[in-house]
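Possible regression after last week's pipeline update?

I re-ran a chain I had predicted before the update to compare outputs. Posting the input and the new output here so someone can diff against the archived version. Not blocking, just want to make sure nothing changed silently.
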Amino acid sequence: MISKASQSEREPLIDPNFLFRFSVPCLWSKGSWTEKGVQLSKKYLVPSFGELLQRPVFADLRIAWNEDGLLFTLRVSGKKNTPWCRSTRIEDSDGLQVWIDTRDTHTTHRAGRFCHRFVFLPFGGGARQEEPLADWLPVARAREAPRPASPEDLAVRSEQRIDGYVLEGFIAAAALTGYDPQEHPRLGFTYAVIDRELGWQTLSLGPEYSFREDPSLWGTLELVRS
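New output (post-update):
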């Protein structure tokens, strides 16, 4: 039997991730988006620093960049149930949400015009809600918003697997206000893989923190060419 005192000793009052600003490399890829999606090797893997608090890691996220935009693959495993995805409740659906600041500014708590939010769902689109879905969403409490992304600037593909799903996506440079890898090779960045069955997997802080609306809590993607 564990006493309340010993439980308190085991649970930190502040998430250790709150004390750090994480920076991860994002490697260049000559590949481009096609109807078959995109394939990225393990060298493009983006970590989840939630492991510092023994949070579950159930998703393999890989991201690459080039002058055309950002490419990613996501593999979610360990599921027993079908993902819950609804086009009418896109923010609450199972899938991937990504936040990007093309100026990597960490000095303000409210998003500006270079801050973006995208959501990619493995299902939920189409007349029968069986097709993948990609969309642009405003960042909550933003003091200024970027231009909304056009549907043609986002691409998504998915495959259902016996224990989860594979999701592949593309964010075109035109959807990212201020995207200029040569002049600004660092992007403010965070992500959340949301799953009603498995929970949340994030870059660092969990959903109890306001990272969904506060760019100062995001990490950094370093756009590396080599």
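Follow-up from reviewer: compared with the archived run. Residues 4-10 form the longest helix (7 residues). Marking as no regression found.
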